[in-house]
Amino acid sequence: KQAEKAVHQKKEQSKTKCRKARRRHINLVAEFNRRQRKNIWLETHIWHAKRFHMVKKWGYCLGDSPTEKSYRACYRAMTKHCLLQDLSYYCCLELTGRENELLKQLARICSTDAGLTFEEACCLSGRFEGSLNLYRADRYPEDMLGPVTFIWKPKDVSENRQLWIWMHPALKQDMLRELKAIFQCSEPEEIYVPEPITTSTQEEKQMDVVLSLGKKRKKEDKEGEKAVPVKKIIGDGTRDPFQSYSWISQTTGIVISDRTMEILRYRLIGPLSHSVLTETLKAASPQTV
């Protein structure tokens, strides 16, 4: 009897939600938003999910290893062609303010004895990316926070400079806490108010309304287009969506902003990496005022 009941329930489910209905764009986007409440998906998640074993780490859903039994394809791409990696799960902190004030305080969390610093001329111009190890303020060589990479925005007419610091998500909270302390950024500049996350029952009701509107949407129903849910990523894997993401110092005017998942990051490895970039990217024409 239990087996018959299970089969009967399965038939009822299949009637209400057939594969064609599940594969509609409206339902796919709603499912996309629902499934990444706990673990954030990268922009390339769908592509990786079809070809990789996925793992949940640091608040993200990441591709761990390919489903193929051999790594020869990746090795061949690295040695002869081009291999692209999605590193968008790495966290990005943006510092904005006067250059001398930024360098003065950043010198407290790094040292010339360890190698490169934020003041290196080639990096300060914005032409090259630098990498170094950060320490707690005035504690070198003890209390190392971890390795980071950074890049300065090239100078313009404004006196303010922008600096982007990239770090592993496991190090972000410690790095952010230390940067807020040395720059005295305690007051939130902006408060992020996300859209309310609907419950599963509410989503199902919304989807039923959307499906009813979507039947005649192509011909005459214009409101059906507005009812289509938008693919959205709320917050990131290292920050609660209700937390502030930008802080300002009243004494120095320095602003610290969390740009994680706002700036995508990809790594290209292989002899044809430069060729791929030149064929893919096109330089924008200079804007005349």
TrEMBL record:
InterPro entries: Pop1 (IPR039182), Pop1_N (IPR009723). Residues 4-97 form the Pop1 N-terminal domain. GO terms for cellular component: nucleolar ribonuclease P complex; ribonuclease MRP complex. GO terms for biological process: tRNA 5'-leader removal. It comes from the Eukaryota. This is POP1 protein. It comes from Mesembrinibis cayennensis.
